[in-house]
Amino acid sequence: MAPTPEIGNHHVAASDQRHAFDFVIWQNGATHCGQGQDNAEYWAWGQAVLAPAQGTVVAVHDGVADNRPGTETNTAQPAGNHVVVDLGHGEFAALAHFRKGSIRVAKGDVVTSGQVLGLVGNSGNSSEPHIHFHFQDGPRFDPGRSVGIPVRFDDYEADGAPHADGTPSGGQFVSSLGHDTKGG
Fold first, then answer.
1. Are the CB atoms for 86 and 53 separated by under 8 Å?
2. Which single residue of 28, 74, 115, 119 could bond 51 by disulfide (Cβ 3.0 to 4.6 Å)?
3. Residues near 72 by Cβ (< 8 Å), separated by ≥ 6?
């Protein structure tokens, strides 16, 4: 029997997030040191979040408190602190779960590929510090308002193998060899 899409990507049920990625940092067999009960114990916490491509910021929300890992999530504000960038051609990059107070861009700003947007946090419907990332066909980070678009990455490594272009699979260990992404 073939696996269901939800096994590879738990976001698939939301039309705007069906091609989404959740990025964490994995070291020493875990995403954190210690017991993982404090955000600061997570390797990703406070790391810079970079713009995936050049575009114009069309939505920013900051001010949502960060969750305590493993004990609470904010389902009332699922994206938490987030940024949406208009990449042109009907493609929008949505990034969510930034650390409260860390977003460094404002609506209307033009950003360049690799520019720091803010810091990894644990806000919204998030159980541990990470960054949620997807492309969609509309400017609002709202399920039912946009449809997810597949993302292709340039210059990345997946499970130790370099790729000039492609899309990583769920559960792969990936790292950037560059900073560009493109829809497709």
1. no
2. 115
3. none
pTM, 2 dp = 0.86
Read off the tokens for 81. Answer: 């602190």
Alpha-carbon separation of residue 142 from 16, 26, 109, 179 (angstroms)? 7, 29, 21, 26
Q: Which pairing describes strands 110-111 and 91-98: parallel, antiparallel, or unpaired? A: unpaired
Q: Looking at the structure, give the CATH architecture of the domain made up of residues 5-183.
A: Distorted Sandwich (2.70)
Q: Whose structure tokens read 């492309």?
A: 135
Give pLDDT tens digits along the chain (184 positions).
333 334 444 444 445 566 799 999 999 999 999 999 999 999 999 999 999 999 999 999 999 999 999 887 999 999 999 999 999 999 999 999 999 999 999 999 999 999 999 999 999 999 999 999 999 999 988 767 788 899 888 888 988 899 999 888 878 888 877 544 443 3
Q: Hey, what amino acid is at 177?
A: L
3-class secondary structure, 42 = strand
Question: What is the C-alpha to C-alpha distance for residues 85 and 106, in angstroms, rounded to an integer?
Answer: 10
Report the alpha-carbon distance of residue 123 to residue 121 in Å, rounded.
6
Give long-range contacts, CB 8 A cutoff, 24+ apart: 166-175: 168/21, 169/8, 170/7, 170/8, 170/9, 171/8, 173/26, 174/23
